[in-house]
Design brief:
This protein has 135 residues and is of the alpha+beta class. It has three helices and six strands; from the N terminus they run E-H-H-E-E-E-E-E-H.
Amino acid sequence: MKEYQFELEMKVRDYECDLQCIVNNANYQHYMEHARHEFLEKAGANFGQLHQQGIDAVVAKVEIEYKTSLISGDRFVVKLNIAREGVKLVFFEDIYRLPDLKLCARGKVESVCLDRGRLTRGELFDEIFSKWLKK
């Protein structure tokens, strides 16, 4: 398994499953979003507080490949890496079932930064994530 910059363990809740008794596809995006917000907290910033300052990181594009379904009660871990691609911050996120580490989903989430509604390069995020962004 490759190395990751951050990981967050979670558990599937019953209401996240559909009639097929597997996690509904949209919930994988929720898991990834929650991991990104927790990663931001680890880096010393808070999504809500940044918004209050007029700084918003917004999702511009999401790609998810579904590999193996999670079911109610499964424990899993979201692992991520971050990179800068021009004005975009790109999060590469993988979801693994525990304890067997079976890959369940692989995501690529591109985000951009708005400062009071105007698109910027998001230099603040370069500072926040300086420990993880390669120069």
